[in-house]
Amino acid sequence: MPKVHLNKAYSPSEIETTLYESWEQNGLFKGPIRKGRKPYVIMMPPPNVTGMLTVGHVLNHAIQDVLIRWRRMCGDDVLWLPGMDHAGVATQAKVEAELLKENVSRHDLGREMLVEKIWDWKRNYGGIILKQLRRLGTSCDWSRERFTLDESLSRAVSTIFVHLYKKGLVYRGKRIVNWDPDSHTALSDEQVEYKNVASNLWHFKYPLSDGSGHLVVATTRPETMLGDTAVAVHPEDDRYRAIVGKTVRLPIVGTDIPIVPDDFVDREFGTGCVKVTPAHDPNDFEIGLRHNLQFISVIGPDGRMTKETPSEFHGLTREAARDLVVKRFEELGLLEQIEPYSHSVGHNERTGTMIEPLLSEQWFVSMKGLAQPAIDAVRNGDVEFIPEHWEKTYYHWLENVRDWCISRQIWWGHRIPLWTVKETGEIICSTDDPTLDPKYKSLTLEQDPDVLDTWFSSWLWPFSTLGWPEETEDLKHFFPTSTLVTGPDIIFLWVARMIMAAEEIFDVAPFQKVYYTGMVRDLKGRKMSKSLGNSPDPIHVIDKYGADALRFTMVSLTPRGGDIRFDETLCESGRNFANKIWNATRFLLMNLSDDAEDFQFTPVDALKTPPKNLIDHWITSAFFSAARDVSLALEDMRFADASKRIYTFLWNDFCDWYIELLKTRLAEDRASGEESLRVAFGVLHGALRLAHPVMPFITEQLYQTLRDLSASSWPEEFESESIMQAPFPKVTQGFIDEDAEQHFFALESIVSAIRNIRGELGLKPTLRLVAGVRSDTGSIATDLEAYKPYILKLAGLESLSFDEQRPKGSVSAIVGNYEVFVPLIGVIDIESERARLQKESERLEKLLTGTQKKLANEEFIARAKPEVVENERKKLNDAASALEKVKLFLKEIETL
User: Each residue of 61-86: pLDDT tens digit?
Assistant: First the structure.
């Protein structure tokens, strides 16, 4: 038959896009519904419609794809459902920013026109990240792609709102909310990111109304004092017992406000006196309720001072009002102290705007009743968290959960399904538009102007995407789902709420496992960010190294749920691994005989009995051991362990050792070598399937090459047109021979030790050496005699003895339980070698001394970059290790 060729060099760019298009066009990603098959389902955490691919996305989606491809190959009905979130605040802010460039505001356009503008933007620019994910090889079912504003998902949102409203779990109330003065909307607590801000702590004197003295309060927000309605002290603070119930004269404003006792006050902070502004602080709000205080809003929704303040403050920004308040206190002689102070300030996590705590009437979901079933779901084991330590964070939040503010004062999103009949005041809560109902034809209905929090749609994601509230076939087959892969930063925003929603509607958890990925950091341990310039563009990395290299690198670096340290240069190892597999396959193809008209091989896991030849027997055993370890690692979600095990088998066992031995067999006995060649192709076939979930592109390309070569002879279950439909290797226990693997490991260790000795002494590869192996734990000849021909060949030996005593004048190395030695008499020029080693010893001693001195210099440690210091420490360790070997060789030579 004609030889099957591969290009000399592996070029990811030449195959990846073509392969992906082929997979998608042939419907290989579609989630099937087959009778008797177990479903395996992952719901993709929907990225924002405004999103772009980051290294964090790469890690998250690579892990999801590993699981999906693995379970697909295991024969499950696999569904990985993709989609996007409309990201209400962020998306509207982006479009409004574009409009402002043309001096157009949303109010100039009106609601309907702005929403249409946003839809236009979404159609033209939204969802870039989903296109980018294809470059990564994500095998999700694009035919089921969902968007949170799709008609069916919008129906689900209305349905859950009506359900909760009728149960009394949705209510309207006036409370302190997180207000974004730029976007003019409320945000939930979980959408606020707290940043440490360097500011001041201002100490103000509040005179007692009776003229008997003053109290000192400390604040980080002087502008809010204009809305103070009390000063609070701890009821057991002896310093202030006598004045509780008295009043102070509020400076600038001139009103008298009471001194109230409250347990919330920390007696140790500042003076123990706390100014209370109930309309502008959530804790002060609670104090205000407890003591029936006034609620005065001095900062408006636009972030400017209201008419509730003295006239000179009207319309000032928060910053300008702060400066003026401090100035007035100074003029009044009531500014006691200003001290530098850093404190945590809330910001909109999407836009970065500083949040204003604001008293506002909003829609809330009562969370206490929803929280307990969600707590029980994890505590009872219905949902497993990986790593487990995230359970404590989850429990703490749910046990102290506050009601969820779900209304947003923007126009992009799901309108609240509530209408008020203007003529009668009747409130209609309905999934259907009541303006279409004939009974309201002659009346005026006004829909609530607010939209719902983006997460109010996302918490339904595991089942709204499958058609709920309709009883669809997808919902019946694929819900509950199997695994959720997400970041711990949205454990409250999304994970907990999805569990709440599913427990409320279905009385069941929405997924069985939640795997929390770690954070991707740079090599210095810093979080990846645009501002630091340390976050590479994943598409650039794919262009440079290939998607498989990027995937393999990130997956193999990640500890179980822990942070990873990444730099794009690390992808060189992944690219080298892909090249290694490519070149090994190419070598096997090149060794097909020109007259091999009927060359066929059997996939390794389709063999009926283990091969009899020593090395073939070993490599099949090593393969099944690797398959066992990889399967166990994937079951346990130890993705790095799975990747590294694939690497060690393919790179070390197969490519390095087995193929090197195969070369020997082919050279010495072509007929015998052909049998090993068949085994090699069979093992490679299995190894490609083992590696496919991590490295889908190269494994598919090489699988197709092997399929073209020999598929006609394979059992039916192996005749799949794509590797992703082929069976994941199953472990045949009878093929695992631990003794054979241990013996071959001894062969590897012995050969490596002799090669190292040869390298240390600078001996030519063509020089045939005499060597011996012994052990103090008993005879080894019986175990290793069968491997002797391979050791002789691989180590370049003239002879090899077992169990003999090491003769004088030998250099040796300890490997495990074995001592490997090489006699040097007659092999090297003793005097020349002694002189060389002595010179090398002196050089290493000098290097060690200099490096130790540098590392002992505190000024160097303080000023040098961390990577420079680390490099010096590595240099020290390497030099110490090399010196030890040189001294050992010198000691041996001295005996000659």
Answer: 999 999 999 999 999 999 999 999 99
Strand arrangement of the beta sheet that strand 39-43 belongs to? 77-81, 39-43, 483-486, 513-516, 384-386
Nearest 5 degrees, angle CA 231-CA 237-CA 243?
A: 50
Residue-wise pLDDT tens digits, 144-178: 999 999 999 999 999 999 999 999 999 999 999 99
Q: How far apart are CA 16 and CA 696, in angstroms?
A: 9
Task: Please tell me what DSSP assigns to residue 354.
Answer: B
Query: What are the residues whose beta carbons fall under 8 Å from the beta carbon of 650, sequence distance 6 or more?
Result: 577, 580, 581, 584, 687, 691
What b/e string do you get for 299-312 counting C-beta neighbours within 10 Å, with b at 16 or more? bbbebbbbebbeee
Q: Residue 480, preceding bond cis, omega within 30 degrees? A: yes
The reported pTM is: 0.88
Residues 216 and 271: beta-carbon distance below 8 Å: yes
C-alpha separations of 364 from 169, 192, 405, 626, 892 in Å: 8, 17, 4, 53, 82
318-330 exposure pattern, b = at least 16 Cβ within 10 A, e = fewer: beebbebbbebbe
DSSP string, 479-516: -S-SEEEE-GGGIIIIIIHHHHHHHHHHSS-S-SEEEE
**Token pair recorded at residue 822:** 């090489």
The pLDDT tens digits for 541-559 are 999 999 999 999 999 999 8
Structure tokens at 518: 């770690």
List pLDDT tens digits, range 167-207. Answer: 999 999 999 999 999 888 998 877 788 888 889 999 999 99
Q: What is the dihedral of CA 464, 470, 473, 478, to 10 degrees?
A: 30
Is the pLDDT reported for residue 40 higher than 60? yes
Angle between the N-to-C axes of helices 670-691 and 659-668, in degrees from 0 to 180, rounded to the nearest 10: 160
- Structure tokens that stand for 42 in this block: 């992952």
Q: Regarding predicted confidence, which is higher, 1 or 296?
A: 296
Q: How far is CA 66 from the centre of its chain?
A: 13
Any residues with CB less than 8 A from the CB of 679 and at least 6 apart, and which?
A: 601, 604, 611, 613, 616, 619, 620
Mean pLDDT, residues 783-793 taken together: 90
User: Is-contact 151 79, C-beta < 8 A?
Assistant: no
> Can you list the alpha helix ranges (DSSP code H) found in 486-613?
497-506, 538-545, 547-557, 571-590
Mean pLDDT of the region 562-590: 94
Half-sphere exposure of 100 (CA within 13 A, CB side): 7
User: What integer pLDDT is reported at residue 2 of this predicted model?
Assistant: 39
Q: Residue 317: helix, strand or coil by DSSP?
A: strand
**pLDDT tens column, 442-480:** 999 999 999 999 999 999 999 999 999 999 999 999 999
- Judged against a pLDDT cut of 60, whether residue 697 lies above it is answered with yes
| Contact of 510 with 468, CB cutoff 8 Å | no
State whether residue 20 is helix, strand or coil: helix
Asked whether 231 and 248 are in contact (CB, 8 A), the reply is: yes
Of 626, 614, 629, 696, give the one whose Cα is nearest residue 654: 626
Q: Any idea what DSSP says for residue 8?
A: S
**Residues 353/182, Cβ–Cβ less than 8 Å:** yes
CA distances 498 to 374, 399, 463, 505, Å, are 9, 16, 10, 11
SS3 of 843-862: the string is: HHHHHHHHHHHHHCCHHHHH
Closest CA to 464 of 414, 513, 516: 414
Which tokens is 806 given?
């090491």
Q: Is 648 exposed, middle or buried (0-12, 13-18, 19+ CB in 10 A)?
A: middle
Six-digit token string for 894: 């001295």
Nearest by Cα to 885 from 844, 832, 835, 857: 844
- The per-residue pLDDT for 1 is 33
Judge whether 390 and 518 are in contact, CB under 8 Å: no
